[in-house]
Amino acid sequence: MSYTEKEIYWNEKHQNPNWSDEIHFSEFFENEMNELNFNKGIINNTEITSRLLLNHLSVFSFSNNTKIIDFACGKGDLLLRLAEHLPSCHSFGIDISEYAISKFTEKVASKKLTDCIKPITGSIESLRELNESYSNDIDIIICRDAFYMLTPEEQSLFFKLSESLLKETGILYIADSAVNINIVDTIKKHVIKRQHGGAPITWSINGSGRNFSISDKALGTRLDLISNPIINEDVIYKSFGSAAKFCLSSSTKNAYENLSEIAKPQKIKNQRISDYIYAKFIFCKTPIIKHSVSSSILVKFSKNFSYQNNETIINKGLYSFEIGKWNLVLGQSGVGKTTILKYIAEWYKNKNIDISNKPKKVFLLEQNPKLIEDISVKSNLILFNNNEKIINQVLINLGLPQSILKRVHSRNKLSGGEYQRIALAQAVISEPDLLLLDEPCTGMDQVKKYQFFSNLKSYYVSNEIKSPTIIAVDHEFNSIESFFNNYYEIIHQRIYAISK
């Protein structure tokens, strides 16, 4: 089907909608299929997709101007939903149907979102044009139910453009039907224009799982699947079956019935397997080392790292942190921030994790540090350095009075802020070459968090003391980013160096 034929077909489709012909492979939640429940399925599918995408969004992107491209956006429902979650986002919706884009434009205007959402009539060339202005600047690229419309050459170009457009932590989301490679010709006998176009995603059995042709399209780029695709064995079977009951055209009805029968899952080795499935693929970039290897602490995972539940936490690869700088590592809870620090500090050992170029003297300040509570603060500090001149100077820079040295926590309770600063004082007076900070400001408000790092910085600057290499981990950065030279994020089971 040529570009012009596709444009004419989709314009007609959007202008004269027949809900039973609109096969979106929705995840239906109602047993009885009718127009109302079908539309509910479409709405639910939009909500499911928006939440899935938000779960993969970078911490930096939540805090800044998130940029999204929806390729084949239709009338823009998904971008409008994402705009509700991300008020500061800047989005582009591309669709081949001029009519759909006109309706999308009306919705954008009615919701007063013209400054943040731009509808575009076009196809792959529109993506190329955006790449000229937004290279390495897009957080999410979406392609739902449209990848099959692209020719094999266009599909390869789509991946190359996506690689160029995406930020280091960005994702490419593709959701579409995928067919067993052995029945591609059978499917083609029954498809109508709605399903016809370029090249379908195919799959074949590889060992115990499926091998998808879409992975081959990513070859030659830095894009890689974050994890195994999300597969629904029933969606296409149910979608075609439900729509067939309401088709006005007998030829379309027959086509849908045949396709539904082909997609009907079969029980194989206690599993329900369909030849014609719906799959959701999420790709991310492979991280690169941005600093000289000789001036970096290197952390090499020779295998995917996981906890006891076998869910991958960090993908195998080589990651680095610049020596002599302040490095801030961000990430949501549970992504492995603390674990990374403990391996660098050699509190943990693993034959598949190698740490090299690490400075000799390391201090790890834990998230919830413990003082010896039955002895004085001074005694707690002398354990790490008995030079009183250094101790006194550190106390001054951390904003602690000399009188605190005599206090014993078990008798004269220290405040949370005092306790935390004394623990930091222990770290500083130990004069480490590498200082590891595991969310040291837990429980502090933004002002006290800023003061914490300001006091730490002032000690080294005001006393003209060379700062150790610092690797601090946290889940937010707004109040402290100015103190750090480098930014990293653990996301997509990988560690990325972030350009800001």
List the defining traits of the structure above:
Rossmann fold, 2 domains, alpha/beta, six-stranded mixed β-sheet, 500 residues, ten-stranded mixed β-sheet
SSE arrangement:
Blueprint: H1 3-15, H2 35-55, H3 59-63, E1 67-71, H4 77-85, E2 90-95, H5 98-110, E3 117-121, H6 124-134, E4 138-144, H7 152-165, E5 166-180, H8 184-190, E6 201-206, E7 209-212, H9 214-217, E8 223-225, E9 230-232, H10 235-244, H11 250-263, E10 266-268, E11 271-273, E12 276-285, E13 296-301, E14 305-306, E15 312-314, E16 317-322, E17 326-330, H12 337-344, E18 353-356, E19 362-365, H13 377-382, H14 388-397, H15 416-429, E20 434-438, H16 446-462, E21 469-474, E22 486-491, E23 494-498
Parallel strand pairs: 1-2, 1-4, 2-3, 4-5, 5-6, 17-21, 17-22, 19-20, 20-21
Antiparallel strand pairs: 5-12, 6-7, 8-12, 9-12, 10-11, 13-16, 13-18, 14-15, 22-23
Note down, in words, how this protein is organized.
There is one protein chain. The protein has 500 residues and is α/β, with parallel strands linked by helices. The protein folds into 2 domains: 3-285, Rossmann fold; 293-498, P-loop containing nucleotide triphosphate hydrolases (Rossmann fold, 3-Layer(aba) Sandwich). Helices cover 35% and strands 24% of the residues. The chain is built from 16 helices and 23 strands. The strands form 5 sheets. Strands 1, 2, 3, 4, 5, 6, 7, 8, 9 and 12 form a 10-stranded mixed beta sheet that branches. A 6-stranded mixed beta sheet has the order 19-20-21-17-22-23, sandwiched between helices. A 3-stranded antiparallel beta sheet has the order 16-13-18, with no helix packed on it. β2, α5 (98-110) and β3 (117-121) form a beta-alpha-beta unit. α2 (35-55) crosses α4 (77-85), α10 runs antiparallel to α11 (250-263) and α14 packs across α15 (416-429).
